[in-house]
Amino acid sequence: MNIFIEEPFDPVADMPLYQQLYGRLQRAILAGWLPGGYKLPSTRALADELMVSRNTVLTAYEQLTAEGYIESVEGSGTFVADVLPAQLLTTADKPVGPVPKPRQPPADRSQLSQRAQAMLTSPQISPLLPASANGRPRPFSLGMSALDAFPYPIWSRLVARQARQLSIGALTYQDAAGYRPLREAIAAHVTVSRSVRCSPDQIVIVAGAQGGFDLVARLLLNPGDPVWMEDPGYVGARGALLGAGAEIVPVPIDHEGLMVEIGIERAPDARLIYVTPSHQFPLGVTMSLARRLALLEWAKATNAYILEDDYDSEFRFAGRPLATLQGLDRADRVIYVGTFSKVLAPALRIGYLILPPLLVEPFLKVRRLVDFHLPVLEQAVLADFMAEGYYTRHLRRMRTLFAERRSALLAALAELPLDLHAPEVGSHCVGWLPAGMDGLRLLHQAAAHDLNLWLLSSYSIEPMAREGLVIGYGDHGTEEMQAAVRKLGEVMQLVCQYGSERA
């Protein structure tokens, strides 16, 4: 019956829910998607599937029965009528309202590689909802920079300048490591801002952090190799590791970050450890210095590699962050992943790996067999943007802007029944839901109101004791955020009311 729920129901629209359901069923019957004799689900089954009350379905069915669209057969169920009322047949080719699209048959995955099938088991990292009509992400979307603050005039001028001055040599195959001036600018920046120890020769430019995860997995993992994964943790990294055939070993997070001792108990022979130590995604904790040193010592002793994802540590609003694992590493066991998606724009698709010296040559040889290198124009523009000081100034502006948006969000969320965890870093916070609240229903109702939320459980491998929301605040100003929170409050009330009715 998924044909009826291509779009979420709107519980606060002028039209009651039973009329919305009636209209979708009517259009499906008139369009022929539900042919004569088709058996409809029971009222209880359809109510559970659509997450509405049973009375809503009963009322819709009663109206359809009265008008001759469907008929009930005692002991057998409810069916679409074989013969529709004559007055409706004349307009059967012109149903009122949008016609539901036929659902595509499920893809035959048997022809896919084991690598692809493993990746398809991972939750997807794409947003739950498409962009709004103005092209902007919907409120509470994750991983978003402040697109309204993107320096369009400066960036456009640098693009035009680079396009004019590109030489013939820039049109041929380039260094697989990436554009040399950009690697030099990155090395200078991370040495100062993140206490990273590297030279430009250790840097490889990749297609965002996701491209880096994929390259690391290709080079270092064999099918069946155990890999520690933060739990809950970033599903994009999990998907890349699954694609390499890795055995994902979930390691829980506490107030000090990754619980190293549990990782050792569960997989003492792990080949790789994925961590977000500066701002754990999604819980937001910072790994303690003691845990960092313990992890580095264990990796040194076992010849394991640590994949350090430093995705948004540039946005710290109070105090200085702890040194990176890469900066503390003296045994060359850390692979550092950075990205420009959070500071500039996700569509830029430029990230970088900082590799231990012994891995550089094999990585570049493998890289040449994957995608060779990224387009040079965007790399050259970004190199100019950094070398001429625009990146540092933009980063300072973004820190101020994100701090303001965080404060506005937290002030608004204080009125809602959420237990908030919002460290002064990054562009998202966590709101733990009240006990008993149906998180999945809340997610769907929020989607119906153009809010893009994520459940904490969607990032978790092992069951969570408590459900929560991951709430982004990067790409919406104070007034937009306050309006979105008010809407979220209304949705939470509706979900609570529904739970009370069901009880």
Give the termini distance in whole angstroms: 25 Å
Sheet-strand content, in percent, reads: 5-15%
Number of helices: 17
Major sheet summary line = 8 strands, mixed
CATH architecture of the largest domain: 3-Layer(aba) Sandwich
How many structural units, i.e. domains? 3
**Cross-sheet strand order for the largest sheet:** 4-11-10-9-8-5-6-7
The mean pLDDT is: 86
The low-pLDDT segments are 86-103
Number of strands: 15
Q: According to CATH, what is the topology of the largest domain?
A: Aspartate Aminotransferase, domain 2
The top-level CATH class of the largest domain is Alpha Beta
Structural class: alpha/beta
- What is the molecular shape? globular
Helix content bin: 40-55%
Gyration radius (Cα, Å) is 26 Å
CATH superfamily of the largest domain: Type I PLP-dependent aspartate aminotransferase-like (Major domain)
